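Late entry, evening session. Most of the bench is empty. Finally got around to the prediction I had been postponing all week. Sequence below, unchanged from the version circulated by S.P.
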Amino acid sequence: MLLTITMTSDESVPATDLGFLLHKHPDRVQVFEQSFGTAHVFYPEASPARCTAALLLEVDPIGLQRSRGRNSPDFSLSQYVNDRPYAASSLLASAMNAVFRTAMRGRCPSRQDLADGGVPLELSLPALPCRGGAAYARRLFEPLGWEVAAEAVPLDERFPQWGDSRYVTLTLRGTARLADALNQVYVLLPVLDQAKHYWLAPDEVDKLIRAGSGWLADHPERAGITRRYLGNRHGLVRAALGRLADAEGLPEDALELPEVNRTEEEHERRVPLNERRLEAVTAVLKKEEARSVLDLGCGQGKLLARLLRDPSFARVAGVDVSHTAVTIARRRLKVDRMPSAQAARLELFQGALTYLDDRFRGYDAAVLMEVIEHVDLPRLPALARVVFGHARPRTVVVTTPNVEHNVRYEGLTGMRHADHRFEWTRAQFREWAEEVCARYGYQVRYEPVGEDDPEVGPPTQMGVFTAVR
């Protein structure tokens, strides 16, 4: 796989000063061994008018797969016969970070003035996997000030009827700080590919915040970039968006993760579906005469705020796996300025819903509002054991999207939210609910949320579980 970086002269600065910025001399070929292959840096051309540095990465796909272990979810023949040696991906991004680390930090002691200013640049990636096609590549790079040339690569030029492949040839032209250009490519490579070759640990948020400094927070595709870069890991995405807003001084509403697809919001324009869910859940809790309520997966505290306004709820608690989400909830609820009597009714804490936690016990009711669909299916039994078996409140309220209703949203393809692990039909939801009831001694009734379409049902389905033994 190949990345070329070209700098042209603006009369005052010779193009060969690119060597200073990259900390790689134009007269040398340098080799950098990586765990997944070998990176080479060389200069195909170097003149005062035009200078090009090339990063060529030779990937060993067999060695890459062997280093991942047999329990890798992708352990198959496709991991030995694949596009990794040829198509730009997170492997190239990792090599960039290793080879151009100092340049990406914007440091150049010998020419710091040059590193701090914009220079005429052209970056080219001849083979780039792009889930979303050339148009998506333009959506990502054009807001950053680049002139973008993105052309789809045909499956076979001899057979145009076969159409285009998922690869594009991408060229970026513009005047920018080299550090910004490198960091933008570093972040957006795995976003376009929508895949990473390594396990996503929490420190990926740190990498994203560092590489996205100064440009990501203002990008119109900020949320989508963050989700794809972090592999749709909901907790990591929330943490990253929260830190971006804090770092850039953005208003709180910039931290919002869309809970439904925009088409769904447009469909429910008069009364947003999220508001209908809040109303429906609150009504059920009052009907069940719950005095103490635990909001499991409370997010930024919208349900908590509604419950705190009603004095009939004497004790309200919220828990979320994301520490950042809990922090944001505290800020949105203005806990520091809350009247003491109201503050005494509220508790907020961090916790995972798939692990036994005694703090979950002792409540009349628990709420899982638009939560279960964000949990991997193999982890749902653990969540049920924690909520229905260990915490065991008298009432549990569960809401989740009804996938049958998706046909009513014009333009919606796939699931309603990028982080959804699944979306159930009404029959699938009822099958899961009945299994939970049989195992843990509950009974359940079902109520629609939103308009109950006679053909495809409501947009949101709700189950109200009550303990019977």
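Two things to note before I forget:
The first strand starts at residue 2 and ends at 8.
Confidence is low (pLDDT under 50) at residues 68-85, 248-269.
Will write this up properly tomorrow.
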